[in-house]
Amino acid sequence: MKRLAALSAGLILGSPTLALAVEHSAGYRGIGSLYFTLMGAILIYGVYDSFGKKAMYVAAPIIIVGLYMMLPEN
Question: Are 11 and 41 contacting, i.e. CB atoms less than 8 angstroms apart?
């Protein structure tokens, strides 16, 4: 339970998209980055749970880069 609390606090406090506001005429990049951050964390944990730590170290950068490229434009 302590790990889950620490992970939640790290995601909330460590994410710059939660602290930086975007203009009202902006697109969906802010909410998209929050959505993709949570989705990436779940995917990386799933790889770790299924295949182990070595596979997670290989798959995590691929997942992060792939999700970043899927973000909508401003």
Answer: yes
